[in-house]
Each structure stands twice: as C-alpha cells, then as structure tokens.
Design goal:
The complex is a heterodimer. Chain A is α/β, with parallel strands linked by helices. Chain A has 14 helices and 17 strands. Chain B has a single domain, classed as 3-Layer(aba) Sandwich (Rossmann fold), CATH 3.40.50. In chain B, strand 1, helix 1 and strand 2 form a beta-alpha-beta unit. The chains are: A alpha/beta, B alpha/beta. Chain A: GO terms for molecular function: ATP binding; carbon-nitrogen ligase activity on lipid II; zinc ion binding.
C-alpha cells in the first residue's frame, strides 16, 4: 500500500473514531458518519484510498448487497478484501470500507446506481458489475432510462472492464459503451420496464431469452456466461451446478453467476468460487430465520416491484402463512403507488397479515387482488396469530430493519 | 333502465411507455367498481406499436419519464384514435406525464418545448423545483366529487387556457403551480396525482363510470378505501 499524505491519515483516523463513537452510541455501524468526516477533511480521500488496489463496483436496482457479499466471499483466495458489507453504498461508505482495510489489495464496493459515474471516476475501479434496472422508489431514486444514459457516458470515458447482465435490455444499453464487456445471461423476470428499445424507443421483440429492437440494430449481445435454471455455462462451454448455493431463489442464482463472472476476471475459477458462494447463508439479515416462541420467522426484504417478484419466488409453498409489512419513510420512498405494480394474487389461498405504517395502503391493494388478509397493528400480533411453525415475512426497508431489531440482528 | 345491461370498454394507453408507477391500479379500480354495480367491463392494453381503438368508453394514460412521454405524444398524434374517441364523447383520465401530453405543449428532457396532442387547452413547461409529496385538493363543485388526495412527483408547471377548468383548488401540494390542480373539459380529465390516483379517490373513479354509462350509479361499500383516505388526509393535516 502506498503511504497516505498526513492530512489523509488524519482524515482516516478521525473518521474511524467517529465511526466507533457512533457504534457505541448505538446509531448503526458508523460507516456513514466515519466516511463523512474523512471526506470533509480530505475531499480526495476516496481516490487516495483506492490507489494501488484492484476494485470492483457492484450496482443494480436489486441484489447489490447480496452480490457484493457473494463476490467478496469468492475472492477470499486472493487475500484480504475491503468491502462495504452493510449496504452503506455511497462514497462515505466506500471511504469507510477502504479505510478499515488499509492493507487489502482488493476491494468489492456496493455502489448506489446514481453514484456509479462519480465513484468510477474517483476510484478508477478495474471491474464494474451491472445487474438489473427497474422502477424503484421514484420520489428518491432516479429515472432509470436517465440513469442508464449516465452509465453510458461514464463507461465510455473509463478504462474499466464491465460485467453486465445482457438479459436486461436497459443494463445492456447502459453497459455497451464500455471498452470491454463480459456479457452474462443472468435472467430477467421483471420485464415491465423493458418493452421499449433504450436506444431508439421502438418496440423490443422477444423470442425465448433473445430480444431485439424492431426498428434499430440494438439487440441482445451474445452471452459469455449463461445461467439456465440451476446450472451455469462458463466461457468455453464448461458447465457447473449451483446446488451448493445456500441463498434461495432464482434472483440469487442470477447474483451468483454475476459473482462467478466477476471473480473469473481476477483468475478465480468457478470450481474454486462456487463452494465459497455456498458459505454465504444470509446477507445483512436478509433470508435469516429467527426463532420466536416456536415460530421460525424468515425475513425477506423487498423494496420495489421487481424485488417482490423475487420474494414470492422463495416463499414456503401455499398455504404457508405470510406477513407483509410496509412503511413509507425516506429510505422506503414516501409514496406507496408501487404496491399496484406488484401482483399480489399469488398470495391467494394463504393466511396473510398486513402491517407496517402503511398497512391501509396494503389493505386496499390486497382487497383489490382478492387476497384474504388481516390487518394488525404490529408484526408481533401476526407472529402470535400464526400457529407454531414457519412464517415468511416480507417487508420493505425500514419495516425490515424494525423487525430485525425486534427479533435480533442476526447477520 | 336496467343497470345489468351496461357494458363498458376500458382502454389503457401505452402501458409500455406510460406506466411508471402503479398506473395499472386505475384499471383495476375501475374494473372492480364497475363489477360491483353489475357493469361488465372489457379492458384492452394498447401498446405503443398498436393502433388506439376508437370505440372505448374510458381511456387511461399514466405517467412516464421524459423520453417515453415524448414518444407517446408523437405516436398518439400520428395514430389519431384517441382524438376520434374524444370526439365521440369517451371519458379520458390522464395522470402526470399523460396529463401534460394532452395539452398543446410540454417540457422535454432538457426543458425544451415538445408539442402535445392538443386534447386539452393546457400548456406545460418545466418548473424550477421538483414537486414531491402528498397533494390534496377541493374538486370543482359541479363535478360532485369529494376532496381528492394523492401523491405528486413532477417538475411540471401547467397553464390552463380558457378551454378548460381546473379540476381542483389545491389545499396541500403544488399541482399546476398556480394554486390549482389538474384540468378538465367535457369528459376529459387530467391530474398531477400520479400512479393509482383512483385508489384513494373512489369518487373520481365513479365520476368516470357515470360518464361512461351515462347515468347515476348506486353507492357501494368503500371501507378500506375510505379508511385509507381518512388516514392520508389526516397525515397531511397534522
């Protein structure tokens, strides 16, 4: 590691102290405040901390935190890896992650979609992994067509290798200005945001996994890696089973194949990476099962319509009970309109509980989907109302954090 | 007249371009509220590469990003189906980007003026600040619809010409930017309440249904929508 200038060393030290104090005060893991103070003292701290390391940026609407974790796990054969494991995915979080692992030669950084251009410029990251783009909380998130356009500009100017999901037309468009790209057919289940060609606005025709614009030449590139069900075909045609993966559902199989493609870029072969992916069992509380009075409560985080589709994919089979909790605080998005983009009819025939600060929005939505439901004031009432056994809980961001705090922060 | 003989066609315009945020909620609400009155419905989703049928009773236009909004306006103008339907007296309900494009002009991605489709005498441009938050308005009394509640998320400023009236007087929020929210003429109605605006405003949904069937419809039990309305109105009052 190259030596940091004195001012930067001071910035790192003070940032760490602030982070420690924040943790002691019980205000989270301190990575945001630590990074904030560090950057205030040395605005170029991120660039300095990134120097001489091999860095990966991971961005998408969904699956950023999980994929970051999977890549980090699969990179362990290379040595120490710096990472922002707790989802602090803006430059303040990146500074904290890199400052906390000064000797690490590698880093895997989850990056908020909007910050990809800036963080790429500041860090000169070697690899950028881009997975999916879909409608998110629009009162705080950017419009995705605009966002993909910004990725294009940033990648055009950068000297970085991109790993991108070519099953998502908007991601493909966003990535296709990069000088070198590994295309991964990682799947796309939410298609409501990709009916039109990102290049010209014409209709996209789909046939099987392929897609192509009817009016211009924009089409799905030939994939280098292909996910089919439980199996992955690597470049050169070798096939691997994903059976060791512990995280459930097809979304995590998508995340896993992206992770394999990323680590292959650093020389970690799939046969080495796969068992390491299998060591990840839960990610920042997601997919965790907690025991409470004879109930096994599994916590699933879903923040937007595409995320709900993936949560439904891993539910216990009907008539397994489900509790849903919806808030609309800042991090959740203050607008609940997106509930109407989720097809809740899949919950018919199960006992369903609705809670959270916006349980009435949920009630109106479930009623319109002809789902039988019970509205309860808090999650505890739902938990105690189901007989001992399994309960799946799907919650959006702050609702999820509340439940996690209530039933123990298992990471 | 016999209510059970009513049958209406709902046309959702360009879900591939104008459906960013729960817009299908308006379709679902209309279908359900019609069914509970014994009105049978047929819903057609018209994608932007298809022609717009002229025989619909209620047309819905949702919200969209700048580029899709421009594309939708170009295609609707070239298609002409919505204009014919409007001449035939069909009801049109448009939210946010859909509302703006019904006018003579709206702001594109760089704020440049883009021609609209000219069904409403309104002209929109880009404001200085994005309006994001709850919106409440008192509806023009002749429409006989209770106070509206919704969520707005736009940077538009809309000027109303003499050919339209404001939908509501803004109580909370920004709306058109001049103390009023939305606009209407005949059976064409636009609003800045985005996404599934009819969920919290069953009165507005019933107005569209009355226009479509041409007579009064009986009241129905609205307990969940009613509780949601009450909660939202209380949340912005405090």
């Amino acid at each position: 590691m190259s030596e940091l200038p004195l001012r930067s060393q001071l910035a790192v030290a003070l940032g760490r102290t602030a982070a420690r104090m924040s943790r002691l005060a019980g205000r989270g893991d301190g990575s945001v405040i630590g990074g904030k103070i560090g950057l205030k003292l040395d605005p170029e701290l991120l660039t300095r901390l990134a120097r001489d390391r091999k860095l990966v940026l991971v961005s998408a609407t969904n699956g950023k935190t999980t994929t970051t974790r999977l890549i980090t796990s699969a990179m362990t054969p290379l040595g120490e890896v710096a990472t922002n494991a707790f989802g602090a995915n803006m430059p303040t979080g990146h500074v904290s992650a890199l400052a906390a692992a000064r000797e690490a030669r590698y880093g895997v950084l989850e990056c908020d979609e909007k910050y990809v251009p800036m963080v790429l410029k500041e860090t000169g990251a070697n690899v950028v992994a881009l997975m999916n783009l879909s409608r998110d909380q629009m009162d705080r998130a950017a419009e995705i067509w605009l966002l993909a356009g910004k990725w294009r500009k940033a990648l055009e100017a950068a000297d970085t290798h991109v790993i991108a999901n070519c099953d998502d037309p908007l991601v493909t468009w966003g990535a296709s200005t990069a000088k070198s790209v590994t295309w991964v057919a990682a799947g796309q289940h939410w298609r409501e945001d990709s009916w039109c060609c990102p290049e010209c606005g014409g209709p996209l025709d789909r046939e099987g996994a392929n897609w192509a614009c009817r009016e211009c030449s924009f089409a799905r590139p030939k994939p280098d890696w292909i996910l089919h069900g439980q199996r992955v075909t690597a470049p050169g045609g070798r096939t691997f089973e994903l059976s060791e993966l512990q995280l459930p559902g097809r979304a995590n199989r998508s995340n896993a194949v992206i992770a394999l493609a990323v680590v292959a870029q650093f020389g970690v072969q799939p046969e080495v990476g796969l068992p390491l992916l299998g060591e990840v069992k839960s990610v920042a509380g997601r997919y965790t099962t907690v025991e409470f009075q004879g109930r096994q409560i599994r916590l699933l985080l879903s923040k937007n319509p595409a995320g709900w589709l993936e949560a439904f994919d891993v539910l216990e089979p009907a008539p397994g009970p489900v509790a849903l909790s919806i808030n609309a605080q800042g991090p959740d998005g203050r607008d609940t309109s997106w509930l109407w983009d989720v097809d809740y009819r899949i919950l018919r025939g199960r006992p369903v509980w609705a809670t959270g600060e916006r349980r009435l929005d949920l009630a109106a939505r479930l009623e319109a989907a002809d789902v039988d439901f019970t509205v309860v004031d808090d999650i505890e009432q739902a938990v105690l109302a189901v007989p001992p056994g399994k309960l799946d809980v799907i919650a959006n961001y702050t609702a999820f954090q509340n439940i996690r705090t209530r039933y123990g922060r298992v990471v | 007249m016999s209510v059970s003989s009513d049958s209406i066609k709902i046309v959702w315009i360009y879900p591939d371009l104008l459906s960013t945020y729960g817009d299908q909620g308006n379709c679902i609400v209309l279908e359900r509220r019609a069914a509970r009155r014994g009105i049978s419905t047929r819903t057609v989703h018209v994608r932007s590469d298809e022609s717009v049928p002229v025989d619909g009773d209620i047309y819905l236009l949702g919200g969209g990003e700048d580029r899709p909004q421009i594309l939708a306006a170009q295609r609707l103008r070239a298609d002409g189906g919505l204009h014919k339907a409007a001449e035939f007296g069909a009801a049109i309900f448009a939210v946010c980007a859909g509302y703006q494009l019904l006018g003579s002009e709206f702001g594109g991605e760089e704020g440049q003026p883009v021609p609209g489709i000219g069904l409403l005498d309104i002209r929109s441009g880009r404001g200085e600040k994005r309006a994001v938050g709850e919106i409440v308005g008192d509806v023009a009394p002749e429409l006989n619809v209770p106070r509206i509640t919704g969520f707005e998320n736009h940077q538009g400023v809309t000027h109303l010409g003499p050919g339209v009236k404001p939908l509501a007087k803004t109580v909370v929020g920004v709306g058109n930017g001049d103390g009023f929210e939305g606009a209407y003429r005949d059976h064409i109605l636009g609003t800045y309440m985005h996404g599934p605006a009819l969920v919290r405003n069953p009165g507005l949904a019933d107005l569209l249904l009355r226009w479509a069937v041409g007579h009064e419809i009986q009241p129905i039990d609205d307990s969940w929508a009613g509780r949601l309305r009450e909660e939202r109105l209380k949340a912005v009052a405090s």
